[in-house]
Amino acid sequence: MKSSPRIVVLGSINMDLVVRCAELPIAGQTVLAESSTEFCGGKGANQAVAATAAGGSVSMIGAVGSDAFAGRLLGNLSQHNVSCDAVEQRRGQSSGLAVISVDQRGQNAIMVVSGANASVTRDDVMASKDLIERSDVILVQLEIPMDAVLAGIDIAKKAGVRVVLDPAPAPREFPSQLLAVDLLCPNESEAAVLTGQPVESVADARRAAAQLQQMGAEHVAITLGDQGTLLHRSGESHLIAAFSVNAVDTTAAGDAFAGALATRWSQTDDLYEAVRFANAAGALAASQHGAQASMADGEAIESLLQSQS
Question: What residues does ATP bind to (predicted)?
Answer without folding.
Answer: 187, 223-228, 254-255, 279
